[in-house]
Design brief:
Helix content: 10-25%
Number of helices: 8
Structural class: alpha/beta
Order of helices and strands: EEEHEEEEEHHEHEHEEHEEHEHE
CATH class of the largest domain: Alpha Beta
Strand content: 25-35%
Largest sheet: 7 strands, mixed
CATH topology of the largest domain: Quinone Oxidoreductase, Chain A, domain 1
Shape: globular
Amino acid sequence: MSGANAKVVWLDGPGELALREERLAAPGPGKVLCETVVSAISPGTELAAWRGLPPLRPGVVYPRLQGYCNVARVTACGEDVESVVEGDRVLSFASHRSHHLLAEADILYRLPEGADADRVVAAYLFHLGYNAVLRSDVRAGSKVFVIGLGALGLASVAMAQLAGAEVYALSGQAAPAKLARGYGAKQVFARDDASLDTLAADVVITTTNGWGDIDIALHAAGQNGTVACLGFPGRGEPAPETNPFDSQYFYMKQLSIEAVGWSPEHDDSRGFNRFNERANIAYLARLIEDGRLDPAPILSGRYRGEDIARAYADLDARKDDAVTYLLDWN
């Protein structure tokens, strides 16, 4: 059993992408060697690092690996691997790279025969919207307002609609507004629409970073509503001119404002973390395979893995109203 030469994407600094070759050893016990079939760009996270926005947590910022939506084919298995065999395709959080070694425990999902890797690779992007819906207690009949219609915003619209909510959205661009309506949004507002003050949403899901959109969220939320933040309010911006915790909104409406980007990674031994990351991703992958969830509208095109710099530049320029891209590694 031999290893492989891997081409790996590194971000050395803002705008400084490099494709480096690394030698991978043969898989040891409990590990599998994989050849990437396709990876998907998570535009919010990846472009923020590429642009040089402030990091979300302390520590070394660069160099860093990019990406975490990866479907690969198993080419070799180490000893004691039981859940997959050579030739199986697996979904994982591996970065953008041609090959990788993966612990069996880090396999998120094994794709069944015939499943479309191009669609299943986007499952985690929808998981973030799904987690926002779960964490903010969206139920059938809830009024949900999604701010921002990038990949996460559109995923949140789709997940809220699937949960039975009455979904509204906000965007200043015609193309994503059309996609949101395709995912079930009843209406897409412009940012200067005065009727937002009377929307009275039960849940507002914010997927952008601007303080101005937080102000809109506070206006649009109803009494005892929830503002669920998938974005990072104020990231890369100066302090806001208005108080986001102004008493007329935060206190008088009794709003809950919470971060909803993380979920438990695993269930616990007694099932208290039932809606954990792995279970959620497997559920969404099955929805994609069954045709009940279609990632195609947010997958705007594809590039070779080696051309990731051009893909980032085109996403940053919003070329042809792109939402995100796939990267081919075969």
